[in-house]
Amino acid sequence: MAEFFHMGGYALYVWASYGAALLILGLGAFLNWRILKRSSARLEHLRAAAPHRRRRDGHGAE
Amino acid sequence: MSVFWSVVRRDLEIAWAQGGGAGFTVIFFVITVTLFPFGVGPEPGVLARIAPGILWVAALLASMISLDRLFAADLEDGSFDHLLLLPEPLAVIVAAKCLAHWITTSLPLILVAPLLALMVNLEAEAFPVLILSLLIGTPAVTAIGAVGAALTAGIRRAGTLIALIVLPLAIPILIFGVAAVEAARMALDPAPHLMLLAGTGCFALVLGIAAAGAALKLAME
Amino acid sequence: MVRFANPAQFQRLSDMLLPWFAWATVILVPVGLYYALVNSPADYQQGETVRIMYLHVPAAWMALFTYTMMAVASAVSLIWKHPLADVAARAAAPLGAAFTALALITGMLWGEPMWGTWWVWDARLTSVLILFFLYLGYIALWDAIDNPATASRAAAILALVGFVNVPIIKFSVDWWNTLHQPASVLKMGGPAIHPDMLVPLFLMFALFKCYFVTVLLWRMKAELNRAKIRGLEAAVQAAAERREQAA
Predict the structure, then answer these.
(1) Are the C-beta atoms of A39 and C226 separated by less than 8 Å?
(2) Is C133 in Cβ contact with B167 (below 8 Å)?
(3) Which of C55, C214, C239 is opposite residue A21, by nearest beta carbon?
């Protein structure tokens, strides 16, 4: 187990790399998911507040 | 063709009337080159080794300076609408403005370059190639700069954004230009590098003028 | 293709695809990591640092793939005026920039133990660095222009100009590199890949791909939401103003 973390002496480089990947991609995923959730919530709020009229460009309700 | 030259002449007259543009570019060029000895030390050997790079990088940066004004003035006061009414394709007008801009900014730079080359200890054999590489490369840089200027035409203080857009695209020209001067410096044959420079430059010129024209059209919609 | 032009159709399509790609991503994380970190051999020459390759190579590949996708979307946006193409391109850009940054960081972390230096101006890393600047310029241009239609078309032109220049940049950097490097050293990638290393590599590729699709769809849906929000808020504003005038 200790050997696994030690990574043959290259622990710093290997774990920093995987840490960077986790940080960058994980943060990216989390932030974008949150943006989507918030914008969906705001959209729902706006639609509930004002009666939803048919859009003139014909796309209609979704 | 006469439209081309009238646009060139008009832009030159405006630049002359406004004054200062060319001077400022040259001064920036001089100051930038002068910074390097302060940065790396005045030892002649060191400076000579990096002289081609210093000169080319400084020239590239100086070319960025007045780019944001390349199309902005004409777009703001409506001259572009008139120019568009002419039967000549937009590319001709863009090319004319690029030429005028090159004459007022890059050409003075090239004239001053030998003096600065002396200051950074560039070997004498390399001077002609330095001039030649700048003559071939700077029009291409202007064309790429025109793309940046056209894309950011409506934005205020777009100077740094233009640099961010243009400089990465100009790197190949920088690489080949410096390679040519370095080759001459070491008494090797600069021709292959100059030809690569010319080829890249032609491509950049054509692509740049076309893209700038397309970008200007949409800036006016 | 035309079928997807309708944002409503896009919402339905993305709602159908998202769960698959999202779950695939979630599953591939432990599976990929297991194979990359545990169930694959250390390299004969590079030791355990070869595990960094399982991040670096897929990241660099995604960086290039994303830029290509942005260029294609930009062309579609300019030529056929497909309404979702520019949304796709804009959504993809930060993803591409993230992969590029990851490729650079892992490249540095791979370089230090291998060649004893944190940054090395080898042709590939240098080209990736320039690609990073291209991404930043694209994102900055979108943010700098207020009018969404103008921004979309300007960014599209920039993406295409950049894309066309990528081979030239790569070639010139290779050229520059051979001029300045002694022939030996600095060839990234090392020896040929052992078959046992192909599995983790493939898994990480798949992971990054699924991640990309998932987050891209999230971003596109969010962008479409934002457009609708702007429209609704403008309508609410207009209604309020009318009521004020009537009063």
Answers:
(1) yes
(2) yes
(3) C55
Q: Smallest Cβ distance to C109: which of A16, A24, A62?
A: A16
Calculate how close chain B gets to C179, using CA atoms only, in Å. 8
Distance between the two ends of chain A, CA-based, in angstroms?
A: 53
Q: Chain C within 8 Å of B172 (Cβ-Cβ)?
A: yes
CB contact under 8 A, C8 and A60: yes
Q: Identify all chain C residues contacting B214, using CB atoms and an 8 Å cutoff.
A: 157
Q: Identify the residue whose tokens are 């979704």.
A: A62
Contacts of B62 (CB under 8 A, 6+ apart): B25, B26, B28, B29, B32, B105, B109
Asked if C43 has any chain A CB less than 8 Å from its own CB, the reply is no
Chain-chain contact of C226 with A4 (C-beta, under 8 angstroms): no
| Region for C190 from its dihedrals, namely left if φ exceeds 0, alpha if ψ lies in -120 to 50, beta otherwise | left
B164 and chain C: CB distance < 8 Å anywhere?
yes
Residue pLDDT tens, chain B, 221 long: 788 998 899 889 888 888 776 788 899 999 999 999 999 988 889 999 999 999 999 999 999 888 888 888 888 888 888 888 888 888 999 999 999 999 999 999 999 999 999 999 999 999 999 999 999 999 999 999 999 999 998 788 788 899 999 999 999 999 999 999 999 999 999 999 999 999 999 999 999 999 999 998 887 77
| Interchain pair C55, A8: CB under 8 A | no
Burial of B37 (0-12, 13-18, 19+ CB in 10 A): middle
* Residue A52 pLDDT: 55
The pLDDT, as a whole number, for residue A58 is: 45
The per-residue pLDDT for range C181-199, each reduced to its tens digit, is 654 444 555 555 677 788 8
C150 touches chain B (CB under 8 A): yes
**Cβ–Cβ < 8 Å for C60, A21:** no
Contacts 24+ apart (CB under 8 A), B128-131: B128/B184, B129/B180, B129/B181, B129/B183, B129/B184, B129/B190, B129/B194, B130/B52, B130/B55, B130/B181, B130/B184
- Does C211 sit within 8 Å of A8, measured CB to CB? no
pLDDT tens readout for residues C111-161: 888 878 888 788 888 999 999 999 999 999 999 998 888 999 999 999 999
Residues 57-116 of C with CB under 8 A from A: 59, 94-95, 98, 101-102, 105-106, 109-110, 112-113
pLDDT, tens digit only, all 62 positions of chain A: 777 777 777 888 889 999 999 999 999 999 999 999 999 999 898 888 766 555 555 444 44
Instruction: Check CB contact of A15 with chain C, cutoff 8 Å.
Output: no
Residue C184 contacts B where some CB pair is shorter than 8 Å = no
Number of Cβ atoms within 10 Å of the Cβ of B16: 11
Q: Are B92 and B9 spatial neighbours (Cβ–Cβ below 8 Å)?
A: no
In terms of CA atoms, which chain C residue is nearest residue A43? C229
Question: Is the Cβ–Cβ distance between C48 and A7 less than 8 Å?
Answer: yes
